[in-house]
Design goal:
Number of domains of chain A: 2
Distance between the termini of chain B: 26 Å
Helix content of chain B: 55-70%
Radius of gyration of chain A: 29 Å
Number of helices of chain B: 18
Number of strands of chain A: 5
Distance between the termini of chain A: 101 Å
Order of helices and strands of chain B: HHEHHHHEHEEHHHHHHEEHHHHH
Strand content of chain A: 5-15%
Number of strands of chain B: 6
Helix content of chain A: 40-55%
Largest sheet of chain B: 2 strands, antiparallel
Structural class of chain B: mainly alpha
Strand content of chain B: under 5%
Radius of gyration of chain B: 23 Å
Shape of chain A: elongated
Largest sheet of chain A: 3 strands, antiparallel
Order of helices and strands of chain A: HHEEHHEHHHEEH
Oligomer: heterodimer
Strand order of the largest sheet of chain B: 1-2
Structural class of chain A: mainly alpha
Chain lengths: 210, 569
């Protein structure tokens, strides 16, 4: 003998909301998320950010010797004066308004001519020694065209030019560059690099440009 | 030479994600089953108040068609809001930089792009978006598109544990995704990004006076809060047009790895949320296995080919050697392995935030990224990626059942032709949405290349293919503007339609399949039942997914990426 079957559960309704109900729910969702995610969220994060990290929260701006904003340590700028260390080349002339710029594909002939152009410029104005090659990591266009950093090799190769344009010795400048290498917190968590604008700002007082 | 010591942090990060995914996935499962979970004491009363405000209740469970209707209502609302906002942004508040109103075709493309979790952009943020659009309008979609994906996946999976034909309440799922998952995590992540150097301010820009003269405009804004939800929600939109390559948005290798973690967290945990919902934890591992196998192969290939030198540059006089990876289109601070991990994760989670220029990559690396968008499920975007993987599995179970002559079932529910029709529709929509507009664009003469580039090369072909693949998969990464001009009315309209269909057709299929399972009663396991929590099933599903994806796309791969690999321009 089997137990009598339980009465079947009532079927759930085919619809739980009318069109008006959906419309109301949608309107409330949109208003709440605009207020919560579009207004409250960025305002609260900004408020806390200005308390805990005011320097970086405002764009890591760097000030020159006379107090003016000279740039951001995170955004490269045109530094091609003979007495300064240069950053990586930019397809947008370091202008953020122009966006990313567009790097040619690996087999595009435009890549070869772009690199040739950069190399000629660096050799002509960079005062490199005759046999020196330009480190690929220096000549290559970056992803953002705003990369503020350089691998140490690419900074050291510029030392002879800076030495010739200033009264500083090659040995001193090599030590100066090495002191400005940013090493990863833990080895291989990222790569060692030099922030070029910070380096040049530190160089200015030494060459009497402050 | 490739330095194998540089992979330790990659292994550690992926290991960390795999270690916490079962725990976080179980939490997600509790959230979507209304089971007791961390935070109930504070959040439950708030949620009850929100349900009343919305005029709904957790007890009102919707069937698949009504759930779809609710999805369309909310996402339609987001789309209309964005379209109107972007078309009128110059007339609205917070436009200090003077961004003009968008042309309606561009506003259509952008609104479709944000609503569908794609975030593919045909504009330059710095000059064409107001601060209001970046702070208020776009983030609305960043949150709600991710919440929609997760809710839909939860509803589909609930079909396995319900017997009355219902899937749950979309509005309740949305609310709980916001209060339990996206808002708290985005808040914490945004603060962490601030501490790592990302700007967060209401100032629109700063004017700098560079050392060699002139002026430089440095665009600022609430960047950290934007990037946080963009990563977590697998959206991939960037506050800056250079996206995650921008040194302001992604200042260091550490911020790069944190962003990688944020993109991985939800997609890699979703299989375990599934295991929690169906109350069989072991069923999560075949999916996790499939995801990890495909992902590991992709990352390995990507790094290997990016570590190599570019043969096309042989003999360039005066050019020194590369220090680690191929540096063209790469940022210095990330390094080869950490930068590559971010990029592969970004595309494979369908986030699409680039920290490098994809168009500059080695052809094999470009193909690796394309493949991730072909499967769109290893692991894919928040929610929808797992939904696609489940559809692949259902199709695989059906085919496998036919091969051994047993009636196919999964988790005690019969898999019939009805389920398979919807699964096949979702899987076939993808190639159709890529190939049809691709042929229209190429044959219709809509592809115009920038001067100075080759007229019609394999690279251009790859770029057009990549564009529609990225849009159909709701990915959002782009091959770069050098390849061809995509800011025309044709690419705006075609791209917008591809994104909308590529989003909502598969969502409809997922809900339909879930609804059919929900109508069925549970069969007890018998001797012929396929053991799905097994290594055999993992390997079967992995191979099934790879073979189906390759077969669907082989012809078009041959014209673009393969032609480049064998040496075409």
């Amino acid at each position: 003998m089997s137990a009598p079957a339980a009465p079947p559960a009532p079927r759930p309704p085919a619809r739980v909301h009318s069109a008006a109900g959906h419309l109301r729910a949608t309107a409330v969702v949109l208003v709440l998320v605009v207020l919560g995610a579009g207004v409250a969220y960025p305002l609260v994060v900004t408020g806390i950010a200005e308390l805990i990290a005011p320097g970086t929260a405002n764009g890591s701006l760097l000030h020159g010797p006379n107090g003016t904003v000279v740039g951001s340590s995170l955004i490269a700028q045109n530094l091609s004066a003979p007495y300064l260390f240069w950053a990586r080349p930019s397809l947008t002339d370091y202008n953020m308004t122009l966006g990313a710029g567009s790097v040619p594909g690996p087999s595009d002939p435009a890549l070869r001519s772009l690199l040739n152009e950069t190399l000629s410029y660096m050799r002509l104005y960079g005062n490199l020694s005759v046999n020196a090659t330009v480190p690929f990591d220096w000549a290559a266009p970056s992803a953002s065209s705003l990369d503020p950093d350089l691998v140490p090799e690419a900074v050291l190769v510029q030392v002879p030019r800076v030495a010739a344009a200033t009264n500083l010795s090659i040995a001193f400048l090599q030590g100066f560059v090495n002191a400005h290498i940013v090493n990863p917190l833990i080895p291989y968590l990222g790569v060692p690099f030099v922030n070029v604008l910070s380096l040049d700002l530190a160089l200015l007082p030494l060459i009497g440009k402050a | 030479m490739f330095d194998f010591r540089s992979v330790w942090d990659v292994v550690l990060l992926v290991g960390l994600v795999v270690a916490i995914a079962p725990w976080f996935g179980a939490y997600l499962g509790r959230v979507y089953m209304n089971r007791p979970a961390f935070g109930d004491a504070i959040l439950a009363p708030i949620e009850s108040a929100l349900y009343r405000l919305l005029g709904t209740s957790p007890r009102s469970a919707m069937r698949s068609s009504e759930y779809m209707l609710a999805v369309l209502f909310v996402n339609g609302g987001v789309f209309v809001f964005l379209f109107v906002f972007l078309a009128l942004q110059h007339a609205l508040p917070l436009d200090a930089t003077g961004a003009p109103n968008m042309h309606w075709t561009l506003a259509f493309h952008s609104a479709a792009s944000f609503t569908t979790n794609t975030d593919f952009t045909h504009f330059t943020n710095e000059s064409q978006l107001s601060l209001g659009a970046l702070m208020v309008a776009w983030p609305l979609a960043l949150f709600l598109s991710a919440a929609t994906g997760l809710s839909v996946a939860a509803a589909m999976v609930r079909g396995f544990v319900r017997k009355d034909g219902t899937l749950g309440n979309f509005y309740v799922d949305l609310v709980r995704t916001m209060t339990r998952v996206l808002m708290p995590l985005a808040f914490l992540l945004a603060l962490a990004l601030v501490l790592l150097g990302v700007p967060e301010t209401l100032t629109n820009y700063a004017i700098a006076h560079p050392l060699t003269g002139g002026t430089q405009t440095i665009y600022l804004g609430p960047v950290a809060s934007f990037q946080a939800i963009s990563f977590l929600g697998t959206n991939g939109g960037g506050f800056y047009s250079t996206n995650a390559a921008s040194p302001l948005a992604n200042p260091s290798a550490v911020s790069d790895l944190l962003g990688t973690f944020a993109m991985m967290l939800i997609p890699f945990s979703t299989p375990f949320a599934f295991g929690q919902i169906v109350r069989r934890k072991g069923e999560a591992w075949p999916f996790m296995g499939t995801i990890l196998i495909v992902f590991a192969i992709a990352l390995g290939l990507f790094v290997a080919y990016q570590a190599a030198v570019n043969p096309a540059l042989a003999g360039l006089s005066g050019l020194g050697p590369q220090t680690a990876g191929y540096p063209v289109g790469q940022e210095t601070r990330f390094g080869l392995t950490d930068g590559s991990l971010f990029q592969v994760v970004s595309v494979y989670t369908n986030t699409g935030a680039n920290n490098m220029q994809i168009g500059a990559l080695a052809p094999v690396a470009q193909l690796v990224l394309l493949f991730g968008m072909f499967t769109q499920s290893t692991p894919g975007g928040d929610g929808t990626g797992f939904g696609m993987l489940l559809l692949f599995a259902i199709l695989g179970i059906f085919v496998g059942g036919l091969m051994v002559g047993r009636s196919p079932e999964y988790l005690g529910k019969k898999v019939g032709t009805g389920h398979v029709k919807w699964a096949a529709l979702a899987l076939l929509t993808h190639p159709a949405l890529i190939l049809v507009p691709f042929v229209l664009a190429v044959a219709g003469g809509f592809v115009t290349v920038a001067s100075g580039s080759l007229p019609a090369s394999a690279h251009t072909f790859t770029a057009v293919l990549y564009e529609f693949t990225s849009e159909a998969a709701n990915n959002g990464s782009a091959l770069g503007a050098s390849s061809f001009n995509d800011t025309t009315w044709f690419f705006n309209i075609a791209g917008g339609l591809v994104m909308l269909l590529g989003r909502f057709v598969p969502i409809f299929a997922m809900l339909k399949v879930g609804g059919m399972f929900s109508e069925e009663s549970v069969l007890p396991p018998g001797p012929g039942t396929l053991r799905t929590a097994s290594a055999t099933f993992t390997v079967y599903i992995t191979l099934f997914l790879i073979i189906v994806s390759v077969l669907l796309f082989l012809p078009v791969i041959a014209l673009g990426p393969l032609a480049q690999i064998v040496g075409g321009p």
